[in-house]
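Model it.
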Amino acid sequence: MALILLVEDDRYITAALSRALSDAGHVVRPVGQATEALRILTQERPDLVILDLGLPDIDGTDALRMMRQVSEVPVIVATARRAEADIITLLSAGADDYVTKPFSGGHILARIEAVLRRTRAAADTTPNTITVGELTISPRQRKASLHGKPLQLTRREFDVLTYLAERVGQVVSRRELLTEVWNQSRIGEEQTIDVHISWLRRKLGETAAAPRFLHTVRGVGVMMVEPQ
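Modeled.
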């Protein structure tokens, strides 16, 4: 059983989804506006959010970014957008998964169970602290610091950094990052990985030409190393 925040302004979809989720044993908290969803997110701490993008007060993608500023709760986006670029934007903004409309109750329930399973498994196996040279990462607190100074990272930047730090000395392909961090293997677009690596390098005080932590292995992927 999970407490699910359902952010959807269509009352017919809300009623159908609420019924399907309740029948599956979940507790549903339906709201029709992003502002109300953000308030509930900080006060009631749901286990998962289903977020429709066509909200009346705030664009759904902007609402997703706002949610990521205050919470790490798993978010499944419900969208009619099917373009690859749109999906990549949503995943980069912090979505854990997405479903395209129309979808069945069984489909969304399967996605919910998959996301919750990954989230719970990750929580059970997450170490308290990862140290690579002067870089310190606290996965459970979702904090990172370099030379004792906090790093201001987006959710995806933090996830990529942690994944690489857990595999120091191992080459990680862009495909692996896309699959394991973004939980997407079917998009076929890996440029977003390069963008996030570039952002991380800037925040770590390095460049592709003069790397310290993140070394590109041409044609293969990226590897984190402990600076000498």
